[in-house]
Write a structure and sequence with these properties.
- The protein is an alpha+beta fold.
Length: 667
């Protein structure tokens, strides 16, 4: 077995590899850019080597710099993680030439299956059904439009060396094909150092289901069941689960056997993933093969009990797989929510800055018999950089059933505290409560169909609303009692805490009465219904763990005048708890209106202005491109919401802007 492994990656996946290596008694070497000098993976590793400036194409994907780090530290093997150099044949070949073991497949297999164009051709030759498309290289935007017209819209424009949603666009017409081709090409070059693009038919209403394979150097190959990855936004997975709620045993077996046959055909070893599109009749079509560890591998580990990183290392060291296909089972149901530094209230645009609070839920067994796991690469006080992928953590839960795994995830998301940046925790929580998701009736179009106008938060249902009202009333009583115990007050001015209150939230008001005892409070509503509230919450705590009506409830708590800011299940609520008299007076107060920004184009995220597409005094039409902003390796085209005339342009290409900086003004 190896004594020292270098991890040619950063962030969450580097930390994940270090954990397995440490468990195996293997020393680790981290590499880092200027932006990552204080990163968690650097702190966790036994050694760390600086490899250059923040941009990935000047550090993490420069093969010569990684090779120099290997020579400097004497690492015997390299784990590439995912992204960066993980699917680069020339990197694997460089390691082979140096006599260093690549913890992944052989370079010919990477070349055959890692390239999406080549892999589709090989799949077709092997008789595997594939999605219609153009597998050749595309020279320019004009050719991209011509090919797209021939295939028929909508089409998927995709980077050949891509992954993680980078360099991918869906085009519904010729104009979008032209725009999408150039943006995909730019993103692919920046993210992977390879700007080749191909185009295929975009199949509407599909499910994205993938098979995890694991092969050794002795001819053994097994499939570790499937993962459902249909909850995607901008072709980037957000929530994954294993197994899929859609597959039956026969389809699972057929997909698994086909995935293994494909892997064996190219001499594949190590962990890999064969991705399929599955239609409503369970017909499946080969999409691509990822010749690396997948981001979502933890859900497979949870239901099988197999450490995939450990298996990759053991296979690379020449060991045979310690199990056969008949040994692989499905133990429970696992969910994964990807926590991204993206603001769901701003159309999921990237958010960067300092994590002023980062408190994930406690990992391990839960009170209800499940498991919580959090794979992360950040820490409280750390910075989220504009140079890399926006993923902060992967929150995973395991339960005996799909329903139990979802409930564990709901509580875990409500318990997860993140402050200082915009993040998608509220959105993940909203999906967990969505009827279609709970039923398992999902496709890759789920987010686009259910949130066509973007995410505006959640409106809680009547049952949950009353639970929150009862909880905050009980919490307010605790806070009021503390306020009565201020020392130095006059004896005849002692304030008594009343029993009658009105709780206002989400546009509704609940008149209620509280009867408190040593164990908790019984809250009775005006309609005669009651809820028992028990908690050890004290004023000042940002997290309240309660039992309301016999069921657990977790609230993120902030203080506002005469109440609380409460975040739960994707909702962000201002909750006012007042006496009946205060409630009557509050109803007479005027409401403050937000400022009018309709005549400004504001920068929706911290980022770099790549292009200004219009000029001052120019008339623009609805939907016309105004400017392009780049952040976290993604290009975002800002378009006009309505017809108008540009009055003033406040910045030029190359400018670095903050959120809500004014890009241009309109008459």
């Amino acid at each position: 077995m190896f004594k020292k492994i270098l991890i040619a990656n950063r962030g969450e996946i580097a930390c994940r590899v270090i954990k397995s290596a440490r468990k195996m008694g293997i020393k680790t070497v981290a590499v880092y850019s200027d932006a990552d000098s204080g990163a968690l993976h650097v702190k966790m590793a036994d050694e760390a080597v600086h490899i250059g400036p923040p941009p990935a194409n000047q550090s993490y994907i420069v093969i010569d710099k990684i090779m120099e780090a290997i020579r400097q530290t004497g690492a015997e093997a390299v784990h590439p993680g995912y992204g960066f150099l993980s699917e680069r044949r020339d990197f694997a070949a460089a390691l082979e030439a140096e006599g260093v073991i690549f913890v992944g497949p052989p370079s010919p297999a990477i070349e055959a299956m890692g390239d999406k164009i080549t892999s589709k051709k090989l799949a077709q030759e092997a008789g595997v059904s594939t999605v219609p498309g153009y597998m050749g290289l595309i020279a320019d935007a004009d050719e991209a439009v011509k090919i797209s017209d021939q295939i028929g819209y909508p089409v998927m424009i995709k980077a050949s060396a891509g992954g993680g949603g980078k360099g991918m666009r869906i085009a519904w017409n010729a104009e979008e094909a032209r725009e999408g081709f150039q943006s995909s090409k730019n993103e692919a070059a920046a993210s992977f150092g390879d700007d080749r693009i191909f185009i295929e038919k975009f199949v509407t209403q599909p499910r994205h289901i993938e098979i995890q394979v694991l092969a050794d150097q002795h001819g053994n190959c097994v499939y570790l069941n499937e993962r459902e990855c249909s909850i995607q936004r901008r072709n980037q997975k957000v929530i994954e689960e294993a197994p899929s709620p859609f597959l039956d045993p026969a389809t699972r077996k057929a997909m698994g056997e086909q995935a293994c046959a494909l892997a064996k055909a190219v001499g594949y070893t190590s962990a890999g993933t064969v991705e399929f599109i599955v239609d409503g009749n369970r017909n499946f079509y080969f999409l691509e093969m990822n010749t690396r560890l997948q981001v979502e591998h933890p859900v497979t580990e949870l239901i099988t009990g197999i450490d995939l990183v450990e298996m990759m290392i053991r296979v690379a060291a020449g060991e045979p797989l310690p199990f056969k296909q008949e040994d692989i089972g499905i133990n429970g149901w696992a969910m994964e929510s990807r926590l991204y530094a993206e603001d769901p209230y701003r159309n999921f645009l990237p958010s960067i800055g300092r994590l002023t609070k980062y408190q994930p839920p406690v990992e391990g067994p839960t009170a209800s018999g499940g498991i919580v796991r959090n794979d992360t690469g950040v820490f409280e006080g750390g910075e989220i950089s504009m140079y890399y992928d926006p993923m902060i953590a992967k929150l995973c839960t395991l339960g005996p059933t799909r329903e139990a795994a979802i409930e564990e995830m709901r509580l875990a998301l409500d318990t997860f505290e993140v402050e200082g940046i915009g993040h998608n925790l509220p959105f993940c929580a909203a999906v967990m409560d969505h009827d279609r998701f709970v039923e398992g009736s999902i496709t890759t179009a789920f987010i686009a169909e259910e949130y066509p106008e973007g995410f505006q938060g959640v409106r809680l249902g009547d049952v949950m609303l009353k639970r929150v009202a009862a909880a905050t009333a009980a919490m307010n009583r605790v806070a009021e009692i503390r306020r009565t115990k201020i020392s130095g007050t006059l004896g005849n001015h002692e304030r008594r805490v009343g029993d009658d209150w009105v709780v206002s939230l989400q546009g509704e008001s609940f008149a209620l009465k509280i009867a408190a005892d040593k164990a908790g409070s019984t809250v009775t509503f005006a309609d005669g219904t009651g809820l028992r509230v028990e908690s050890d919450w004290t004023p000042g705590k940002s997290l309240a763990k309660l039992t309301v009506g016999g069921e657990p409830l977790v609230l993120k708590v902030g203080k506002i005048p005469m109440g609380f800011r409460i975040r739960v299940r994707g909702a962000d609520l201002k909750v006012h708890v007042r006496t009946p008299r205060q409630h009557d007076l509050a109803a007479l107060m005027p409401e403050k209106l937000p400022p009018d920004t309709s005549k400004f184009l504001l920068c929706p995220m911290p980022g770099l202005i790549v292009k200004i597409s219009v000029e001052e005094r120019q008339e623009v039409q609805e939907g016309q491109a105004l400017a392009t902003v780049e952040a976290m390796k993604m290009e975002n085209i800002l378009k006009a919401e309505r017809k108008g005339v540009v009055k003033k342009i406040n910045c030029a290409a190359g400018a670095s802007l903050k959120v809500d900086d004014i890009i241009m003004e309109f008459e």
